[in-house]
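Supplementary Methods. Inverse-folding protocol.

Structures were first reduced to a discrete structure-token string of length 838. This string, shown here, constituted the complete conditioning input.
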């Protein structure tokens, strides 16, 4: 313990500060709890002085975040004295408060040791009202009044600050406060100012990275060019040398001093401020992230709720929900926990209306909520517990996931019954859950809304290579991975090839069991599975969407590939928007045609087309498997500039005539006749019935030919029961070498699907030496047409299919020519070429 003499003094320019008398300087300093420092860092700590220059109290009352504006809350509820104590506890030597256009908070602690007055001024470029935040430190009350009169004009403000010799910093200089900041504005700022915030404890690290790269790359010539371009006078003797500070930008009291400014040892506030003015400083601490920002919003929202509604009788579910997630109240354990949750969160609702009188969807809400409470969803996390923001995120996400799933199941069931009203009721019930997650969604969006702009600034100043990785981190999102279909096969093949070639690619999916793969894969366990309406047996996973968003941000993904317009694909679209990640879509499946053939309903097909336009319209690039589909997507309204052809490849080692095995089909009870083979899913959209009817025509006409149907699906048993005979066999799925032998031991592929956008099986058959008969609808026709490697027919007509099959059997010369052309097509279809296009 030690005692010191604190002196309240006036600085030479009238600034009111509290200085530690040099002769009474303490012999040791307090270590910051925000860092794990090595011994060398501890030694360096004695040589520096620190202050969090950017922190807000309850006097900052005009929030910029939508969530706080929407509920009418101010930016902060933190008492100035609490900020002072937190700064001291975190090892700050000097303390200030920088409320927006206000010094009340700083004045309240001005009688405490080591403090000085600061404010974060809102200023504008008068020509277009682009908003900028400028931090001014060590000011007097008189200077504050002067600054308020002129702060609306950034040019006048800058001149006054230079004239008065006031320490000033442009905070979060690349954050587009009112979305008007442009590269031209950045150029002007670089001419006019020399001090900028380099680490903001609330904003994402990318902004700090770009700021350091760009502001550290300037030279005399560059600043002279910018000054002449904008007709501005640079400030200082070396305006090309920029100085960076750090500040927490804390609004909730949880992250005070998480970022700070450090200078050489300064025994008094005067000395510290002189170091700041002269650029003898550097930023310290850590940048923020979305979960911390959301935690701050959540804490402020709960404080607002408590302060405004605490005297009201009862408590709304939303208010209680926010408080529980934020960890503001300790919870009892066991049975007491459940009773407390039920009493505080749903008690008022039950008092007003007995449970049995509630609508079914409200009863389900209460049931699900009680079940989660019983399972121990709410933990006893204190608000200031280290890492508590992560556990609070887990709480909020778990609540949203489980209740969202409960109502998705109900919505699906209602749609299955044809009850649109019931489905809408279920959807409406999700609103409170959505509000509970709003702080997180707001934070994700706020943190990344300027990412494209940040990269544009870096590129403009020639610093793109400093922030871009040589190998991009890409995530490939898909709803289908373990299924036996072309989409899953394409993803698996290209992901494995990418791993071999050192391409940064991680597959993201949602499966109940973690898949085995030779490449990076991130599997999120489904919250639950529900039935797809009107599609018996087709289960859909409900993904933990908030966890996926958080993982994509933490994994620092540079680009998204999105394959399917299912739940995981929709999360990809949302993530691209919220996290500012470029997204590329792959048009694997012709859903409008699929729906048309499935339902025979033009209205449903048109709805599917509109959904596809909405979904793929969010992508920067759209890959189609063939030129025909590029033209079709153009006709749907997509810009030609967005469209690319991404064909498929084939593994020539896995599929080859070398796998042909004499007598292979005998074990399946087929004789030695010409063998047609179908490989694929057995479902209505594959049009297999037309092929089976064509085979019956061949049998009736005495054509010696068999048909092997390889695959499984919802129609397997019905088709096998009706069409299996001595010339038709249903093998179920075949895998590995068994599939390779099946292909090579057949004579021709028949693939009558009307909805496949490409048809990988056609290339696999070609590589095995087989020509193909395909439909004149969909993508497979383009494979065959390239080298005339088979026949293209109206596959909706069994008679047309039968004629093509008979021609293949009876015309040996043409058949052999088709075989040669099929092999040539396969030889030019390499997966390596496909990966290069992706």
């Amino acid at each position: 313990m030690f005692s010191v003499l604190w002196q309240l003094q006036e600085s030479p320019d009238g600034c009111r500060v509290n200085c530690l008398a040099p002769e009474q300087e303490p012999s040791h300093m307090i270590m910051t709890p925000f860092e794990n420092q090595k011994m060398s860092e501890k030694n360096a700590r004695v040589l520096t002085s620190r202050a969090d220059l950017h922190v807000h109290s309850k006097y900052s009352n005009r929030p910029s975040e939508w969530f706080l504006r929407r509920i009418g809350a101010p930016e902060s509820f933190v008492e100035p004295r609490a900020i002072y104590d937190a700064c001291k506890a975190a090892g700050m030597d000097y303390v200030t408060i920088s409320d927006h256009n206000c010094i009340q908070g700083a004045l309240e602690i001005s009688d405490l040791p080591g403090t000085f007055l600061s404010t974060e001024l809102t200023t504008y470029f008068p020509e277009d009202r682009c908003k900028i935040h400028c931090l001014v430190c060590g000011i007097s009350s008189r200077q504050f009044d002067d600054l308020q009169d002129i702060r609306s004009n950034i040019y006048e403000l800058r001149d006054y600050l230079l004239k008065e010799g006031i320490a000033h910093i442009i905070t979060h200089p690349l954050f587009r406060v009112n979305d008007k900041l442009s590269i031209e504005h950045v150029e002007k700022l670089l001419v006019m100012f020399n001090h900028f915030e380099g680490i903001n404890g609330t904003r994402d690290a990318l902004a700090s990275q770009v700021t350091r790269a760009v502001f550290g790359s300037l030279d005399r010539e560059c600043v002279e060019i910018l000054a002449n371009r904008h007709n501005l006078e640079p400030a200082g003797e070396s305006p090309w040398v920029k100085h960076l500070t750090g500040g927490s930008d804390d609004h909730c009291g949880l992250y005070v001093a998480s970022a700070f400014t450090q200078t050489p040892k300064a025994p008094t506030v005067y000395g510290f401020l002189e170091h700041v003015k002269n650029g003898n400083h550097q930023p310290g601490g850590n940048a923020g992230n979305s979960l911390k920002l959301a935690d701050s919003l959540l804490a402020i929202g709960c404080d607002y709720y408590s302060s405004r509604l605490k005297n009201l009788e009862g408590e709304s579910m939303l208010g209680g929900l926010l408080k529980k997630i934020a960890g503001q109240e300790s919870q009892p354990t066991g049975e007491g926990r459940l009773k407390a949750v039920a009493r505080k969160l749903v008690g008022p609702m039950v008092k007003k209306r007995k449970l049995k009188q509630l609508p079914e969807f409200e009863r389900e809400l209460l049931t699900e909520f009680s079940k989660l409470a019983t399972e121990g969803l709410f933990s006893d996390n204190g608000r200031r517990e280290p890492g508590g923001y992560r556990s609070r995120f887990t709480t909020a996400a778990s609540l949203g996931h489980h209740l969202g799933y409960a109502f998705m199941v109900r919505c699906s069931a209602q749609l299955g019954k044809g009850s649109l009203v019931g489905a809408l009721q279920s959807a409406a019930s999700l609103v409170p859950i959505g509000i509970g997650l709003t702080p997180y969604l707001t934070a994700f969006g706020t943190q990344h809304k300027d990412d494209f702009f940040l990269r544009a600034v870096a590129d403009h100043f020639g610093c793109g290579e400093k922030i871009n990785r040589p190998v991009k981190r890409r995530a490939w999102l898909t709803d289908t991975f373990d299924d036996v279909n072309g989409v899953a096969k394409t993803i698996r093949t290209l992901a494995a090839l990418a791993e071999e070639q050192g391409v940064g690619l991680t597959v993201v999916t949602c499966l109940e069991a973690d898949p085995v793969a030779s490449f990076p894969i991130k599997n999120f366990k489904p919250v639950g599975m529900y039935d797809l309406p009107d599609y018996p047996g087709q289960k859909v996973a409900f993904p933990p969407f908030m966890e996926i968003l958080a993982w994509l941000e933490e994994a620092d993904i540079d680009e998204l590939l999105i394959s399917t317009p299912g739940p995981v694909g929709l999360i990809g679209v949302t993530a691209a928007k919220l996290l500012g990640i470029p997204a590329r879509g792959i048009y694997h499946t012709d859903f409008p045609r699929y729906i048309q053939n499935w339902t025979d309903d033009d209205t449903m097909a048109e709805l599917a087309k509109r959904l596809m336009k909405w979904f793929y319209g969010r992508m920067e690039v759209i890959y189609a498997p063939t030129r025909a589909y590029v033209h079709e997507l153009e006709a749907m309204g997509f810009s030609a500039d967005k469209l690319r052809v991404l064909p498929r490849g084939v593994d020539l080692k896995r599929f080859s005539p070398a796998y042909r095995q004499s007598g292979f089909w005998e074990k399946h009870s087929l004789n030695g006749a010409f063998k047609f083979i179908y490989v694929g899913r057995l479902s209505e959209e594959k049009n297999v019935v037309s092929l089976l009817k064509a085979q019956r025509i061949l049998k009736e006409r005495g054509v010696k030919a068999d048909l092997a149907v390889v695959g499984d699906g919802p129609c397997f048993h019905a088709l096998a029961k009706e069409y299996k005979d001595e010339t038709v066999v249903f093998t179920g799925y075949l895998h590995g070498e068994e599939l390779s032998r099946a292909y090579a031991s057949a004579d021709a592929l028949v693939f009558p699907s009307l909805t496949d956008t490409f048809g990988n099986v056609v290339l696999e058959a070609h590589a095995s030496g087989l020509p193909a008969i395909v439909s004149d609808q969909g993508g497979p026709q383009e494979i065959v047409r390239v080298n005339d490697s088979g026949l293209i027919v109206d596959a909706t007509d069994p008679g047309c299919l039968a004629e093509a099959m008979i021609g293949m059997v009876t015309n040996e010369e043409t058949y052999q020519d088709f075989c040669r052309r099929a092999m040539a097509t396969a030889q030019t279809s390499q997966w390596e070429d496909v990966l290069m296009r992706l």
